[in-house]
Amino acid sequence: MSKLLDQTDCAIIEILDGDGRASLSDIGKQVGLSGPAVGERLRRLKDTGYILGFGTRLDLRELGYTIQAQVRIKPRSGQLHMVERMIQEQPRFMSCDRVTGDDCYVARLALADVAELDDILLPFHDRAETHTSIVKSSIFESRLPPLSVKP
Fold it and tell me: Is Nucleotide-binding among this UniProt entry's keywords (predicted)?
């Protein structure tokens, strides 16, 4: 059983979520620890699996992706594994979740323009039904759930 997060661990994670490039020293000043102590806590959080890694947030528009789409995908009978492989191999899918309900997958696509939808989704049509919604705007991007300290 893994050790529970304490208030300092939660504060460190929240600081890093807001600024992944914050120095250990700056984080330490905010949480009342030395830089090396913060580094040790981060190593422990990573070793115990609380922190899986660190990433970069990109402005997709700057990369030429002006549109995003949500795609619900329902594989035809016997096509589940092939469709999953196709999703994994199509680099425009930025995320994909297995879900309950009528569809098996909900995925998010990055597109330069709406015309690309046909090129990307056409290979799926022999193996799955797809239902697509264009994302008009995002209320918020991915964020942390509350990091409450369990008693």
Answer: no
